[in-house]
Amino acid sequence: MKKITAPKGTDDILPDDIYRWQWIEAKAREVAERYGYREIRFPIFEHTELFTRGIGEATEIVEKEMYTFPDRSGRSLTLRPEGTASVARAFVEKINPGTLWKVYYLGPMFRYERPQGGRFRQFYQMGVEAIGSAAPALDAEVISLAVDFFQNLGLRNLMVEMNSIGCCKCRPVYKETLKSFFKDKLSSLCNDCQRRFQRNILRILDCKRDECRKISADSPSVLEHLCLECREHFKSVQKHLELIGLKYRLNPFIVRGLDYYTRSVFEIVSEHLGAQSALCGGGRYDDLIEELGGQPTPAVGWALGMERTIMVLEREGVSIPRPRLKAFIIAIGKEAEGRAEKLLYRLRRNGFSADRDFQGKSLKGQMKQADRLEADFALIIGEDEIKNDVVSIRNMLTGEQKQVKLELVENELKR
Ligand code: HAM
């Protein structure tokens, strides 16, 4: 029979790897809660119009990357490609307008992208959203949360890149300026950028192709086209970053791929990922709540990719503590098995992680298994041990072995 494989761009996270994820997720929760953010879980699928309206019709995500399907009633649903639209929808649906709402989430997102280094079709994000304030100090807070998180993981070579893309007042003017700049250079741009010229001109600025980058390098900077309010806001964000001692670099080419952004946008990049991909991206989205039917409510947030975080951890050589099994119990002979089984449950009930063989393996095979499971101790019960009412305890790290009275096993494991 032909074997069935996982769909392209998806992967299993096997038990031998899951500890990395659990370690990162625990750190994510710890940092977010230290900053006063609480967890939200929202649906894996939503009505398609949430994303078309929220993320924007002319974005690559909505145009090409969504997993959209009719459910049995014929309603169009979409697997969530990101979390911000859902969080904004939940805010409008469930939370009193005027509340300052700080939430974080962890979970899978889905985009039909071409899988390659650090890009998948099902990938995991951690994200935070702070809804209900335009205060520049809040932009600085969310950025600091991301940086603290990465530093807590032990990552070092990261850079925060900042930009402001203005608001609905100043951006249209800037877009016109860009149009005049690119108009007579269209034929030198890549095909995608020629389309972007019509549909989403800002995205030409973050095209990664050399020919487009060369042309964009001389384009008018968005930072020189901000209205007074946006300029003041961005200046104040930078002041707050400096006040709390966060390093950043201005990068006027960061425009982000989702249409809901206003004012501050930022990415956190690692030299270990290459220019193609950011580890974390986010910004303000002061108009999204209103766009989704709520009252005008400013907001800011970001999301980071868990797979990319793990890749960078590996490349920076950060070692992640692997949980170990405390005891693997080895029975030699029929009579020993009953005693081994009793001891196994006694240890588990007393709070020790413990396991044994269920496949009738030889002593050698069981020792190997204890090794593979990274047990701290192998507890061996054979004829001798039964006769003397003891257990042989072998320290798997040092190889040292001694006999201990059956009732004193727990004390020995605690040492
Ligand atoms: P995004 O830039 O589309 O933003 O995604 C954020 C992060 O998710 C990326 O920096 C990357 O690490 C990871 N990521 C995105 N696509 C993939 C993929 N196909 N495979 C692996 N990792 C991926 C957002 O999603 C916004 N919702 C962020 C945000 C929150 N803005 C405001 N609040």
Plain-language structure description:
- The protein has 415 residues and is an alpha+beta fold.
- It has 2 domains: 15-170 and 226-315, BirA Bifunctional Protein, domain 2, CATH 3.30.930.10; 325-414, 3-Layer(aba) Sandwich (Rossmann fold).
- Helix content is 39%, strand content 22%.
- The protein is built from 15 helices and 16 strands.
- The chain has helices spanning 15-34, 48-55, 60-65, 84-94, 136-153, 171-183, 191-199, 210-216, 228-243, 288-291, 306-315, 334-349, 363-372, 383-388, 409-414; strands at residues 38-39, 45-47, 68-70, 76-79, 101-110, 122-131, 158-164, 249-250, 262-270, 280-284, 299-305, 325-331, 354-356, 375-381, 390-395, 401-405.
- The strands form 3 sheets. The protein has an 8-stranded mixed β-sheet with strand order 1-5-6-11-10-9-7-8, sandwiched between helices. Strands 13-12-14-15-16 form a 5-stranded mixed β-sheet. It has a 3-stranded antiparallel β-sheet with strand order 2-4-3.
- Helix 1 runs antiparallel to helix 5 (136-153) and helix 5 (136-153) packs parallel to helix 9.
- The radius of gyration is 28 Å and the shape is elongated.
- The mean pLDDT is 95.
Biggest sheet features: 8 strands, mixed
Task: Flag low-confidence runs.
Answer: none
Classified in CATH, the superfamily of the largest domain is Bira Bifunctional Protein, Domain 2
What proportion strand?
Answer: 15-25%
Mean pLDDT: 95
Tally of individual domains: 2
